[in-house]
Amino acid sequence: MPDSEMQQLWSTSHLSGGNASYVEELYELYLHDPNSIADEWRSYFQKLPQVNGHAASDVSHSTIREHFLSLAKGQRRPQAAVGGTVSSAHEKKQVDVLRLIQAYRMRGHQASSLDPLGLWQREEIVDLTLADYGLTEADLDTAFRTGEMFIGKEEATLREILEALKSTYSSTYGAEYMHIVDSNQRRWFQQRLESVRGKPQHSVESKRHLLERLTAAEGLEKYLGTKYPGTKRFGVEGGESLIPMLDEIIQRSGSYGTQEVVLGMAHRGRLNVLVNTLGKNPRDLFDEFEGKKQINLGSGDVKYHQGFSSNVMTSGGEVHLALAFNPSHLEIVSPVVEGSVRARQDRRKDSSGDKVLPINIHGDAAFAGQGVVMETFQMSQTRAYKTGGTIHIIVNNQVGFTTSRQDDARSTEYATDVAKMIQAPIFHVNGDDPEAVLFVTQLAVDYRMQFKRDVVIDLVCYRRRGHNEADEPSGTQPLMYEKIAKHPTTRDIYAERLVQEGVLTSDQVQERIEEYRTALDNGDHVVKSLVKEPDRSSFVDWAPYLGHTWTARHDTRIELKTLQELANRLNTLPDGLVLQRQVGKIVEDRRKMAAGALAMNWGFAETMAYATLLHEGHPIRITGQDVGRGTFSHRHAVLHNQKTGDAYVPLANLAENQPRIDIYDSLLSEEAVLAFEYGYATTTPNALVIWEAQFGDFANGAQVVIDQFITSGEHKWGRLCGLTMLLPHGYEGQGPEHSSARLERFLQMSAEHNIQVCVPTTPAQVYHMLRRQVIRPLRKPLIAMTPKSLLRHKLATSSLEDLSDGSFQTVIPEIDTIDPKKVDRVVLCSGKVYYDLLEKRRNEGNESTAIIRIEQLYPFPEDDLAEVLAPYTEVKKVIWCQEEPMNQGAWYPSQHHMRRVIAQHSVKNLYLDYAGREASAAPAGGYASAHAEQQEKLLQDAFTI
C-alpha cells in the first residue's frame, strides 16, 4: 500500500492515537502466531481488506508493514548463513522438502479424516510420504528453510514442518484451493491456514455457543421425533453442525455490513433451519405437523417446502433473512435464490455484493448429479447474473436416497468437484468436529467478502434416519446403519470434549438441554438474536399488488406528443456512433414511424412500450440468448459501434434520472436463467422482467421452472410474480425444433387465473400487452407466443394512434368491411395463421367468411368472444383453425371454452369444427415441401369443411 493511502487509513482508524504501539505489538504477534491473541483481534486482522493483492493492514512506523508485505508477495527476508556452506546433498533435500510442502497443499485433503463414521477407504497418497522425496526418519530433526510456509518460522526441523503440514492440511478438514489460478488468492489461503496450523484457538464463550447451537439442532429433532413419530421431517440428524455453521455465516457477514441474507435449500434440515436459524415460532411448526390449514392459500404445500423471513441482530447491525420456497426438484431453487439476491442488490445499488449475501445449501447427490448446478456456477461471474459470490454448503450425507456407492453416485472423487470449473475454493470438513466447522466457515465468509467469488463448504456428515423418517435405510445400507446405530451424536461428542476441557460441567450441559426443551414446550422463539420489531425501511412494499381480482383491460394509453418525444429521443444517436448498414436502415425507418410517415412494425412498437414504461418510472430487465438484437433481428435495443465495438443502449439514455434498464445477452442456458429471472421478478414487483427464448421450443430446457414455480408458485406458496416470457412461435417450414413453443403445455397448466397466455398479432397488441403487464397492479406471469415472420409482415402493422389511444384486445373482430348478415362461416384462430387466412380470403374474394382472432387464450375471454360473435346471426359453421397438429396447440385445452360461447349464441345447434394439421408425435415437419402442402390443406379446410 502506498504511504499516503496507509497514512490515511491509519489516521482515520479508531485504532489510532495512543493505542498505536499496543495495536502494532498485537499485530506483530498475530503475524507470527494468530493463536496467541484474543478471538476479537484475530477476527479483526483477518477481515482487513486487500489492496492491489496485499493486505491493507500495513500499519505505519513499524517493521510490521515490511514483514507483512514480504509475506503477501511470497517473499522472505534474506537468510543469514547458518553453519557455513551447506552441502549439495542438503540443498537437494531442501528442494524436496519444499516439494513436500507443495504436495500437502495440493493433496493433503485426500489424507484428511473427513468421514465421521470412519467408513471411507482411501488409498495412501504416495505424494505425501517422505520416501517419495528421498527423505527418511533420519531427516526429521534436520533443520530446513520453510520457504513460503506461514508457520511463524523461517527455518524448522522436518519434524516440525511435517507436523504443521498434517495439522494444517490433513486433519478433520481438507482444503482445496491450489486449482485457483490467482496467486493472491492462493497465498491468502496459505497464510490463513498455515499460520494457525488448521487449529485456531477459540474462546470459552465461542465453545459454549457452539454447544448451545448443537443442542438446539439435536433438541428439535428429538422433540419432533417424540411428538410426531414416523412423520416425515427430513431431519438434520447426523448433520447438526449445519446449524452453528449458518449462525456463524450470518453473524460474521453481518459484521462486514451485510444487511440481507437469502438462503436456498431442499428438504434435509429445513425445519431445523426454520426454527433454529430463522426464528420461526415452534408452535407454528407444530400446527403444520398437525395439518392445520393456512388461511388464504390455495393448495398449500408440505412444511419442508415452505419459505420464511425474519430479522436477526449481529455485531454489524440488523440482518434480514429470507429462506426461499422450493419444490422437490432439489437444486432448481439455487438460481432462484441468485435472482432474488440480484434484485435486492440492484434495489440497494449494491454493485459489489457487500450488502446482500446468497447462501445455497445442497445435498451431495443432487449437487453432483443435476446440471442446473453447473449452469448456476457458470452464471456466477457474468454481468447479468453475478451476485458477488455465493456460499455453497453441501450437507454431505454420503448417500442419495438409496444410492451410496461412489461408482454409482458420480464419476468424480468428491461431490463438489463441479465447483472447480469456476476455480471455487472447497473446504471438506468432518461434521463431528464443530470447531473445525467453525474455522472453515469463517474462512469461507472472509474469502467471499474479500474476493467476491463463490466458495464451497462440504460438510461431511451422515443421515441418522432413512431418506425420511418413515423409511428403513438398513435394507440398502446395512453396514453404514450398523455403524450409525452405535455412533454418538455430534452434540454428545462435543459436550464430552468440553467437559474434559473444563469449559462446562456435566450438569451445565444437561441444563442447556432442558432449557431448550422447555422453550419448545412453551412455544417460545428459540433464536436469541431474533429481532421482534424489525426495521421495515428496506422491505419491498407488496401492498399495492395484493387482493386484486382478474381484469382483462387496463388503461395503457399515453399522449401522442409524449410518445413521439420519446421516439425521437430513442432515435437521436450520439456523434461518432457508426452503425452497420442494415441497422442504420432500421433506425432511419423508426424515425419515419415516429413522424407518422411509415406504418409501425413490431420492433418499433415493442421498443416504445419499454420507453413509455421507463418514462413512467418502471425499471426493466430483459435477458435471453439474443435479446439485445433479437433472434430475428427486429429489436436492436443495443447498438454496436462498427468502428470501436462499443455498445450503446438508447433506452438507457432517455432521461438523466430514469429508472434502470438492463438488457443482457445471456449464456446458453434456459433452466438456470429462467429460474434466476423468476427469482428476480418475485422480488421486484414494480419492474417489467422479461426472459425471451431464442426459439420458443427452447423453453423445454426450463420446463422444471415453468412447472414448479411459474405456473404453480402463487397457488402453492402465495408468491406473486409478474415475469414475462416471450416465446417465438410459428410455423414457417423450419422443422420440428424451431416452430412450436408448446402452447398446449401452458394451456394445460392454466387454472384458477394462475398465468396469462397471449398470442399478439399486431405491433399495437404487443405494445399494450407489455404495458398492461406492469401498469395493471395484478402480478401474474405472462406467457406470450411472439412471432417470427410477422415481425416484418406487410399486414402486421399499426399506427401511432393505435399506441396512444388503444388498449390490449383479448379478441380482435373481423377487420374487413363484410356484412355480418352475409356471413355463414366464422373462423376462429390465433397467431400467424390469421394472416395466411386473411390473404387467402382476400385473394378468393370470399365475403361470406369472417375471421376472428383470439389474442388471449388464458384466462379465456368468453364474454369478449360472445360479444364479437353476436352480430353473425346467419352463421352455420364455426371453425377453429390452427397451424399446430391436432394433439398440440390450443385445440384440446381451449375447445371447451369456445364451445361454451357458441352454445350461448342466438343461432342454435352450432358445432365447432377443426381445421389444422393431423395429430403428430413431432411439432412440425422437417421438409419445406411437406410443410407447404400441410399449410395449404389446413387453410383450405378452414374455408370448406
TrEMBL record:
Q: What SUPFAM superfamilies does its record include?
A: Thiamin diphosphate-binding fold (THDP-binding)
- Provide one Gene Ontology cellular component: cytosol
Extract the GO molecular function terms from the UniProt entry.
oxoglutarate dehydrogenase (succinyl-transferring) activity; thiamine pyrophosphate binding
The cofactors named for this UniProt entry are: thiamine diphosphate
**Domain named Transketolase-like pyrimidine-binding: residues:** 600-793
Q: Name one GO biological process term.
A: tricarboxylic acid cycle
Which EC number(s) does UniProt give?
1.2.4.2
Q: Which InterPro entries does the entry mention?
A: 2-oxogl_dehyd_N, 2oxoglutarate_DH_E1, DH_E1, KGD_C_sf, ODO-1/KGD_C, THDP-binding, Transketolase-like_Pyr-bd
Q: What is the uppermost EC class here?
A: oxidoreductase
Q: Which domain of life is it from?
A: Bacteria
Family listed: Belongs to the alpha-ketoglutarate dehydrogenase family.
Question: NCBIfam families under this entry?
Answer: 2oxo_dh_E1, PRK09404.1, PRK12270.1
Name the UniProt record assigns to this protein: 2-oxoglutarate dehydrogenase E1 component
Q: List the taxonomic lineage.
A: Bacteria, Pseudomonadati, Pseudomonadota, Gammaproteobacteria, Pseudomonadales
